[in-house]
Amino acid sequence: MVDGNGNNVSWPYTYKKLDPDVAAKRAYENCKAKKSCSYGTAAGLIGYLAEEVGHPFNLIPPEVIQGFKGGVPGHSSICGAIVGAALAIGLVTDVKTQDKLLNELMVWYKNFEFPKFVPEGKNEMVTSISNSELCLHSVGNWCKASGFEPLSPEMHERCARLCADVARFVVERLNETLT
Known about the structure:
Helices cover 55% and strands 2% of the residues. By secondary structure, the chain is an all-alpha fold.
């Protein structure tokens, strides 16, 4: 494949070992900035790779995935953090490895007690297990456990922290698999 500048680009793209804590913090901050879980996770992963590796990651604007926030606006389907993570995984792995890592991500997501990430200067939050990859169930279960309403500032904070947890998991798995 040739990019717009005539450079050869082979897929999967070259992966460089990343710091899971840095990816988590970036995913959290990016989700908060745009109130978009899909963007937050994609920017936390692809944006980080753009800084560490450069080309071709620097040609991929994380905004392209923003339409998947909240499980696709108005639908609450698959969690946007998963979609952002899947995009990053797909850029750096062959199809067989994608299948393996995406399956691991889905199983982990359904069983993980979100959110574990605690930003500097903030307190832990109530956690819950989604038992589903759907935004509707993930948020709904957390709202029941916490007593907060959907779309509340607290829910948005929870989702930003969830993005951090997802980004950390993905970087840990990519580091183990590819480096």
